[in-house]
Amino acid sequence: xxxxxxxxxxxxxxxxxxxxxxxxxxxxxxxxxxxxxxxxxxxxxxxxxxxxxxxxxxxxxxxxxxxxxxxxxxxxxxxxxxxxxxxxxxxxxxxxxxxxxxxxxxxxxxxxxxxxxxxxxxxxxxxxxx
Length: 130
Known about the structure:
Elements: H1 2-13, H2 16-38, H3 43-61, H4 64-67, H5 73-98, H6 102-125
Helix pairs in contact: 2-3, 2-6, 3-5, 5-6
């Protein structure tokens, strides 16, 4: 059983979606840390996106998306990525316009990178493309 779970996790991490979710989790964690060091107003965005990315990572890794049939997972993941991209773009622009500490500027730049990453995730996840 442990071999199956390890192989399933390794197999998912080798896919494009697995790598995207892993990078999203790491990027959200770094941005959360930088926002926490500079301003506490935008921590909730990174925290919510971090939690959602971890939940989707677990769902896809454990192959729960095939077992839970009443939720349309591609649309759910698409809207998660799209909303995250829009919100990261808006908050990053606000943070960069306000200026301030270096950690705030770095968080704003990483937020723009996260917005691009989430936009790419939304574009490859879009159910209309499949």
